[in-house]
Queue: 2 jobs
Job 1
Amino acid sequence: MLSSLSYAILALLATKPQSGYDIARQMRPPLGLLWQAKHGQIYPELARLVKLGLVEVERIDKQSGPPRRVHTITAAGRSELTRWIVKSPQARPANDEFVIKAYALRRVPLGAATSLLNDQIQTHEHRIAALEQLHQAFVSRNTKATAFDSPRFGEYAALRRAIGFEREHAAWCRWLLSELTATEKPGRKGVRQPAVGRSSAARRK
Amino acid sequence: MLSSLSYAILALLATKPQSGYDIARQMRPPLGLLWQAKHGQIYPELARLVKLGLVEVERIDKQSGPPRRVHTITAAGRSELTRWIVKSPQARPANDEFVIKAYALRRVPLGAATSLLNDQIQTHEHRIAALEQLHQAFVSRNTKATAFDSPRFGEYAALRRAIGFEREHAAWCRWLLSELTATEKPGRKGVRQPAVGRSSAARRK
DNA sequence: GATACCATGTAAGTCGTTACATGATTAT
DNA sequence: ATAATCATGTAACGACTTACATGGTATC
């Protein structure tokens, strides 16, 4: 069985032939929307896919530096990718360090907790702004790129998911901050937010 | 430096002394809200924390089976935990296999894509229902358990985050399905949902 | 002259999963 | 009887990060 990273690489190569560096650039944290990985993991994985016959490599010599190695997905690679996509996955753990911090947040001084949350909220706002700029670029450049049958739909879907998750995380941080503030100043009950209601999708209708 | 798992263990032990088995139970997938790990990782990590003096262990012999080993956080453990909480973290990668599938979804037959999405949506609905039941139990059993200064606030915060993320993921899957359906039957433009709007938090105001 | 980007790879080490190993107790 | 839960640990392997290693090109 192949790793998730292998399938992420195959998915990228299915759109067009690319070098390891190209792949690494698209997977670079923190803006790798499809999958995040470092080149130290990508190059060996690519070599493995070549050895398995799922990917072919063409070496292009240059006057200077290492030769550029352009990788192309093979027919076997494409069928392996589609085979993998259609079988249902089991959900990943999705461990998040910040949940641990929130879990034990009442054990630290209120001031430190407040500034931690403000830091976190600001970080997420910045990330959201960057993602929304990408979204704008997507929608305005070519409206058809957002349609399901467009070759760039995959990118668009990954981008929407990233925006949704960042917003959800930011909202949760703001809720934490409001709870904390309500404790600090018990008179201000107005800032407390209501209990978990219906999902945003339900509200959207 | 310690691993995230170590801090998750310290956070759990900060609430009360527990055995490795107790910790493993709370971290068991798929309902480990704070952090997910298997006992094969937890037992060695606990031993390491004991060796570092952040945790103490009391061996309780029983008539049968292995002795129960109850772990207690030390003063050094508590201060290490609070020290770690207050310094801002860098965000985790948060890789999700399903994003790869969505990225390349237009490469598989429409029928297979549809049933994959329906499967995924159903799985998430089930998870949401289970989490909401936990939430109900929390709110109805003791209203004060949801306040920031309650000893169980950490659990509650982790639960709210899990619910929010599951809902966001389910909403994204439903969006994918609506895009796919719009492609299949181009006459039905009504099912298409609008472009990314304002965040749910913004709407909540 | 320093920093960033292009471009490829390897090595050591940590994090995490899966399986092996053992054995009593409780519920169906 | 069979399975699930209680209860602890280790070993092998795979996934991932960080650092080492090299060297040209472009920008400030």
Note: The two ends of chain B are 41 Å apart (CA to CA).
Job 2
Amino acid sequence: MDEIFQIENTNFNLKHTFESAQPLTFYGDYYEDKVLLEYTYKNSIIGIKSTENNKLNAYWILKNNNEKLKLNDEVIRRFRLFEDLDYIYKKINTDSNIDIAIKKYNGMRLTINDPWETTLVFIISQFNNVKRIRGIVKNIINRYGEKIDEKHKSFPMLENMSTATKEDLKNCGTGFRAEYIINAVDYFINNVDLNKLNPNNYEELHEIFTEIKGIGDKVADCIILMGYGNLRAFPIDVWVKRQLERLYFKGEKQKVSKLQDFAWEQWGDYRGYAQQYLFHSGRNLTFKN
DNA sequence: ACCCAGGCGGGCG
DNA sequence: CGCCCGCATGGG
């Protein structure tokens, strides 16, 4: 708690970011109309909350002394505060539909998360819903994570999960995805070092991830976007698909491949950011949370 | 009861 | 290639 990072002069809306269901391992508590965000980084815990004058403060809830990590470096990277969101908006604000979403969810940030954490979470996400995904992830953290304090466990890294069995994972609620998880753990322990991949090479990343059984185009794109921060990934899930069809194709069904081409033409190299605004606004047409 | 969820692999034509 | 089906599970 001694070190505090004041986030100023930055377009950053904590509530929209948390509710956009993109950092699926974050915890959020509401007070008044604000959100107190809490997340683990390895064996440390970081909190972010609004101050009276509507600024944001980030601080250590618990800092593991073995980590040389600087708080501001972590927060700046995690929420992409190194780039000007208004510049991104200029790049993707190509029509009135996306303009509405940008204005409504102004300050919603994409996050950059640990590659393995992102991989595991989005393997679980397939044929599933946000609420259940969060529950299953929580079970896996409880089962395989390392204890940080009385309330918190770290997100289990590959080594923590090297002996996971199908039965164990099913008990966490993973269902048929259990064998995909086991397969991915094995693959990334023995074949590919997730932390040595080039974040800027979209094609190479997509090829590597889709080679793995249990990871297809959509999950690979989520990993590339939210695990490596590559904005050229445009994950198309049911919400984004519906939203694109509704807003740009008169509600007529389109093939995913055509929607990918459309996104590339419409939003270019920043399409990943546009995707998050479409996803969040699409979901909120139906329900909150 | 029925439908759906941040999809994917496999089988078939 | 494209298309279609089954898949575990819990909430609305």
Note: Residues 21-22, 24, 122, 125-133, 176-177, 180, 213-219, 222, 235-240, 279, 283 of chain A lie near DNA strand B (CB under 10 Å from a C1').
